[in-house]
Amino acid sequence: MLRWSLVFLVVALVAAVFGFGGIAAAATDIARVLFVVFLVLFLVSMAMNAIRRG
Question: Model pTM?
Fold first, then answer.
């Protein structure tokens, strides 16, 4: 999931360089959402691992 976030970030940067503002904004929003989802899943995984180990 982190890989997809980075892919959309690169797409946003390339689109911004070439002047495609709408595509860059959409790709940035998607990258931001995917990164937040990845971060939440990572934190939940860490918490579950800590609970399981006791």
Answer: 0.72
